[in-house]
Design a protein that fits this description.
alpha/beta; Urease, subunit C, domain 1; TIM Barrel; 2 domains; eight-stranded parallel beta sheet; 13 helices; globular; binds fe (ii) ion
Length: 431
């Protein structure tokens, strides 16, 4: 993209509640932020009219190699995680680079349209052809001007359980995949799971890489891989560079055990990604009633000081038939399932799909501040909680000071006698 004209967004409300702020974007960065900035020659001006200007949405956990493959080669009949993994195994031999690239690019279009400008995607490395790795590395370069795509080398079938997986994973890192993944609960035994965590963390430490493991994605209250991940993080000095994804077993664990586990996670500066849409639909499938929710202990982890993000995980793939790259839908589900209905809690759910997720990815220059990257999304809402409530329209999405997507404000024409001609769904509760 060429260097854009300066962009001056006037009269925005910020996520922290500051009203009537002008934001000047110049040379790819935020050059100034204050009320009533002076006019800038040649600048394009947008009147935000008091709408919420947020840093862009960030998805800290996704599977772009599987997205938009729904129905290929068949649908998931049981709706379980394990049938989803089996179904993905059936699809893998039929994958082509062209189809992978086409679906991933289509998804990135959806993402930009939703103001989602950074995605951490796991990519399955168990296929020795590494077709998906090569396809997504190609996509990563192609979308770089408008979307940060970070890739995790993910041994879907288990790095120890699947022959050749460790060699494939290492090759994927050599090719440029950014982060070391894992799936200890899918190894054959708890001991193998622990061993996989050890060797994958050592691999990351040797290469100076981050770690993000699918960890304890089950309803097993005795699963202990989060503990192992935290201990290996400490042993290898990887503090703040390791993420545990899903952690759904924590929902079912004994409370006394969790009272020991969370402080260990805090000491290791372990980061957490919960995936509310997927956890609520995949977990608890072996239960009759009551059915467990399967979401990890989000408010408790946040209260202890753990950085918790929400991920989308899946859209129209073997595990989940719905979704449209809407991180406000993800935040809304997280809010409901975790019962985070207080004002501060709702705002933490907004953070979970913006700043917290950016921290998981280690994004440089993220946020609305002078000197930060000129990336933002203008939402048709007056506050973060209203954005979640309304799944607010993304009026303008900006990347590096370029406008990359626009949409018309959501509106409905009413035809009722004696009533207004249009409906305005925005409405602020008194504080
Ligand atoms: Fe996942």
């Amino acid at each position: 993209m060429s260097t854009p004209r300066p962009l001056l967004i006037r009269h925005a409300t910020l996520p922290d509640g500051r009203p009537d702020i002008d934001v000047l974007m110049q040379d790819g960065r935020i050059a100034a932020m204050a009320p009533a900035l002076p006019a800038v020659p040649d600048a394009e001006e947008i009147d935000a009219q008091g709408w919420l200007l947020s840093p862009p949405f960030v998805d800290a956990h996704f599977h772009m190699d599987a997205t938009l493959s729904l129905g290929l080669p068949r649908l998931n009949l049981s709706g379980t995680l394990l049938e989803g993994i089996a179904l993905w195994g059936e699809l893998k031999p039929q994958l082509t680079q062209e189809a992978l690239v086409e679906r991933a690019l289509a998804y990135c279009d959806w993402a930009v349209a939703r103001g989602l400008l950074a995605i951490r995607s796991h990519v399955d490395v168990c296929d020795p052809r590494l077709l998906a790795v090569e396809a997504l590395l190609h996509v990563k370069q192609q979308v770089k001007p408008y979307l940060d795509l970070q890739l995790v080398a993910f041994p879907q079938d288990g790095v120890l359980r699947c022959p050749g997986a460790l060699a494939n994973l290492t090759r994927a890192l050599d090719l440029g995949v950014d982060v070391v993944g894992g799936i200890p609960h899918f190894e054959r035994t708890m001991a193998d799971g622990a061993e996989s965590v050890r060797l994958l963390c050592e691999l990351a430490a040797e290469r100076g890489l981050r770690v993000d493991m699918h960890c304890d994605e089950s309803d097993d209250p005795l699963s202990r891989h989060v503990e192992t991940l935290a201990v290996q993080t400490q042993r290898l000095g990887l503090h703040g560079r390791v993420t545990g994804s899903h952690l759904t077993s924590m929902h079912s664990m004994d409370n006394y055990y969790v009272s020991k586990l969370i402080p260990l996670m805090v000491e290791a500066q372990l980061q957490v990604v919960a995936n509310p849409l997927i956890n609520i639909t995949l977990q608890g499938r072996h239960d009759t009633y009551p059915k467990r929710r399967g979401l990890t202990r989000v408010p408790e982890l946040m209260a202890a000081g753990v950085n918790v993000a929400f991920g989308h995980d899946c859209v129209m793939d073997p595990w989940y038939a719905l979704g449209s790259a809407d991180m406000l839908e993800v935040a809304s589900m997280g809010l409901h399932v975790a019962q985070m209905t207080g004002l501060a809690a709702m705002r933490r759910c907004f953070d979970a799909v913006t700043v917290n997720a950016a921290q998981v990815m280690g994004l440089e220059g993220y946020g609305l501040a002078v000197g930060a990257r000129a990336d933002a999304v203008l939402l048709q809402a007056r506050s973060p909680e209203e954005a979640i409530r309304l799944r607010a329209a993304r009026l303008v999405t900006v990347r590096g000071g370029h406008i990359v997507a626009r949409s018309a404000p959501a509106t409905v024409a009413l035809q009722l006698p004696g009533r207004p001609l249009s409906v305005d769904f925005t409405r602020q509760a008194p504080r």
